[in-house]
Structures are given as structure tokens and as C-alpha cells.
Amino acid sequence: MLDPRDVFAANVRRLREERGLTQEQLADAADLHLDHISKIENRLREPKVRTISKLAKGLEVSAGPLFDPIEDR
């Protein structure tokens, strides 16, 4: 079973890239610092609930897809 942090990080990166966003653009859309986005995607920071909500808003998804299993891909 994959670590939920790995799943979350992979989904944030995948969704950001699918939308053609840079980390900086996502940071602006989510009202977060660029460094925060980078650390989340590189599994150096575990996001809190408020950050998850901001990321979902910035990616224009509900929070659920950020936790979708990645083994099916």
C-alpha cells in the first residue's frame, strides 16, 4: 500500500500538469507560497486541512481527487 503522502503529492503534481499550470501559477491560484507547493509535491511537507482545501480550489477540483489511488494509472 502506498503512503497517503505519496499519493497526495503525485495527484497534486498530475492535476497541476494536466491543467498546464506551473507551480507558481498554482501557488497564485491557491493563495499559497511557491515553496509550499514545491515541498508538498516533493513530499517534504504534509499539508494541513486548510492547505488541502486551497489546493483543491486552485486546481478546480473537490478534495477527493487529491487522494485518489494512483496504482490504477
Question: What do these coordinates show?
Answer:
- This protein is mainly α and 73 residues long.
- It has a single domain, classed as 434 Repressor (Amino-terminal Domain) (Orthogonal Bundle), CATH 1.10.260.40.
- Helix content is 58%, strand content 0%.
- The chain has four helices and no strands.
- The chain has helices at residues 4-18, 23-30, 34-41, 49-59.
- Helix 2 packs across helix 3 (34-41) and helix 2 (23-30) crosses helix 4.
- The longest helix has 15 residues, at 4-18.
- The radius of gyration is 11 Å and the shape is globular.
- The two termini are 15 Å apart.
How would you describe this structure in keywords?
73 residues, mainly alpha, 434 Repressor (Amino-terminal Domain), 58% helix, 0% strand, globular
